[in-house]
Design a protein that fits this description.
319 residues; alpha+beta; 5-stranded antiparallel beta sheet; 43% helix; 14% strand; globular
Length: 319
């Protein structure tokens, strides 16, 4: 996990609660936690329990049940821990505490290594399109080696779990509180979700050439920390099994070319198109947590617009 992205002043109520939970849980495990500070506050709150090199991830916007959350965290710890043990370039579970989720006041926390990030993405000129494309092309190329390593993961993982059933749960919430979505938007989203359910249920029949393997699950090219000792992939909380194309969504043509050069394996453009439609539907479904974090609505507006402009996913898409 990285250096602070938000200052410790003006913390949200969500972040204040996260700091309190992380501190109590850390001290219960024998950590000092004398100078806790927030590193990140969006879908999760990341708390560095300084002076110890430990970062606690505190879920703050999840719609899933406590049991589902713990199962998801166990999968993440298992995969990230397996990669770290093999010497892969990842941010691993903290070696200072047991490799298990920690429950406190009804919230399940996970504990990770703290690393110091250099040359973070936020320091690039955000209006410099070329620089941003260069960054994501390079990081997508690195993802080819991560996929090679993940292909050997021996554990069981659900197929495309960030999509099914996760999107279905979010769409059910949006039916009750649609945010900026129209009735037509919701009807389309539910039809697309039904097409994704059919795809997940019988993936080999739809894309017989695709190989399903362990994946990062949340676009590894967007979850890279650059450090003085090299790059590290982080945030494996959506780890799943599926085609590599799911991890390659929205990286752009240069990113795909970099991945193919680095990995020597062609990317299925038809399957990538379906996965990109699924990624945008996932972003639309994230509107379900706007009541918990109102600022997220504006952040998601460009993705919602991209989704509306695309041809809808159907059971015939891609395959």
């Amino acid at each position: 996990m990285a250096n602070p992205e938000v200052p410790d002043t003006h913390l949200s109520a969500r972040a204040e609660r996260a700091v309190a939970l992380a501190t109590r849980a850390g001290r219960r495990l024998g950590l000092r936690a004398d100078e806790p500070r927030v590193l990140h506050d969006v879908f999760n709150v990341l708390v560095h329990l300084a002076p110890d090199p430990v970062v606690v991830r505190v879920p703050s916007l999840a719609l899933m049940t406590a049991e589902e959350q713990v199962a998801k965290q166990r999968r993440e710890l298992a995969v990230a821990g397996w990669l770290a043990d093999a010497g892969a370039p990842v941010v691993g579970p903290s070696p200072l505490v047991p490799r298990e989720p920690v429950e406190i006041d009804g919230t399940s926390l996970t504990f990770w290594e703290f690393v110091t990030e250099t040359d973070p993405l936020r320091d690039l000129p955000q209006d410099d399109t070329r620089a941003m494309e260069d960054r994501f092309a390079e990081q997508t190329g690195w993802s080819a080696e991560l996929h090679r390593l993940l292909a050997g993961y021996p554990g069981d993982l659900p197929v495309l779990s960030p999509l099914v059933p996760a999107i279905g749960t979010s769409l059910a919430a949006l039916r009750k509180d649609p945010q900026t979505l129209t009735t037509a938007d919701l009807d389309r989203a539910e039809q697309e979700y039904a097409a994704l359910e059919a795809l997940v249920r019988d993936f080999p029949a739809r894309f017989p050439g695709a190989r399903l393997q362990a994946l990062h699950g949340d676009s590894p090219a967007y979850n890279v920390l650059r450090t003085a000792d090299g790059h590290l992939f982080s945030d494996f909380e959506d780890v799943t099994r599926g085609p590599v194309e799911w991890d390659l969504t929205l990286v752009g043509p240069r990113g795909i070319e970099a991945y193919e050069r680095a990995g020597g394996t062609p990317v299925d453009r038809a399957l990538l198109e379906v996965m990109e439609g699924a990624r945008l539907l996932q972003m639309v479904s994230a509107l379900s947590v706007v009541p918990l974090m109102p600022a997220l609505g504006q952040m998601l507006e460009p993705s919602v617009a991209m989704w509306r402009a695309r041809t809808p996913l159907t059971t015939e898409s891609g395959g």
